[in-house]
């Protein structure tokens, strides 16, 4: 077989196999944009012919792979799905299985065909990729060309993508959402200093280490001391006796309280001055003043997007998606924020950010992410003045040098 370029049954020789895997087929598209026909000289004509020849050579290359590594399937036109007759490799994020066999959706089958992982037959004849685009896309219940382009782009980038389903159940118990132990200790100490119940205590079952808790407590006291006594003052008082550096015990706590609350009031006024863009509320009252955009019946999420770090991803029971994708052509009108906000509120279970992806005529994709999660104003609520003064007094005594 070394002397011939092709063996029996379409098998390549060893020399052709090595040549196929070592050669690179790229189109050197170094061609300046034409402004007028007068600039189309002989040099540009030669460059254009060279690019055409390189592109023709690239498209004419045969897809070579080991037969044992290819999965096989049969196209069932009556059900518009691909039934797998031979499965090779990992399929945890593709297809589904029922009592009649294993199947893949149309868009999944087309993508696997493009990746040279699946060979589909229809009436005993192998379906080409060109036939797959017309056979598997653009029909009722299947994806459009723009939607498939988004799906293919995200999958090639390493994301997990599933078609959006209203009744899908998600695995919401993720250990990665639990904050670190040091962060839990900081919040625990802070609520204790303010004499308030810690709502995070029962939320996370993991208990904090007592030694780490005390270490964080001392660290917070030290930083509180540095905040109350700036470094400049400490440097100026380095020449003073040690007795003068110590704070006298007869200083009234009310002076510290008044000074602390005046600072709080000062910062409150400052933040109120910058509070121009208000956060969204549950009722969406400010949206009532906007003009209603024209309604579209086909406005819906198309895909669920999952993070690439989901090593234990299962299509039957996936984790909560990081975004839900809306696909539109760039020639269509841009969606109003009110429409996106309504879609965000109508999500079942836990709302996730919306990702609007616009596909242009040349199939380039542009992405816009909308995260409408409401940001709470006060992480820690100050109950009343007396309780706050008592908490501030204990915090002042805690930070007072001995």
Quickly describe the structure.
One of its GO terms (biological process) is tRNA-type intron splice site recognition and cleavage. The protein is α+β, with helices and mostly antiparallel strands and 402 residues long. The chain is 36% helix and 13% strand.
Give the CATH topology of the domain at 143-164 and 300-385.
Answer: Trna Endonuclease, Chain: A, domain 1
Largest sheet geometry: 6 strands, mixed
User: In the CATH hierarchy, what is the architecture of the domain at 143-164 and 300-385 at level 2?
Assistant: 3-Layer(aba) Sandwich
Give the class from helix and strand content and strand pairing.
alpha+beta
Number of H/I helices:
12
If you had to describe this structure to a student in words, what would you say it looks like?
With 402 residues, the chain is an alpha+beta fold. Among the domains are: 67-141, tRNA intron endonuclease, N-terminal domain (MutS, DNA mismatch repair protein, domain I, 3-Layer(aba) Sandwich); 143-164 and 300-385, Trna Endonuclease, Chain: A, domain 1 (3-Layer(aba) Sandwich); 181-224, no CATH class. Helix content is 36%, strand content 13%. The radius of gyration is 33 Å and the shape is extended. It has a 6-stranded mixed β-sheet, covered by helices on one side. Strands 7-8-9-10-11 form a 5-stranded mixed β-sheet, with helices on both faces. The longest helix is centred in the middle third of the chain and has 22 residues, at 253-274. It is built from 12 helices and 11 strands. Helix 3 packs antiparallel against helix 4 (129-136), helix 6 (181-193) packs across helix 7 (210-228) and helix 10 crosses helix 12 (385-399). This is tRNA-splicing endonuclease subunit Sen54 N-terminal domain-containing protein. Belongs to the SEN54 family.
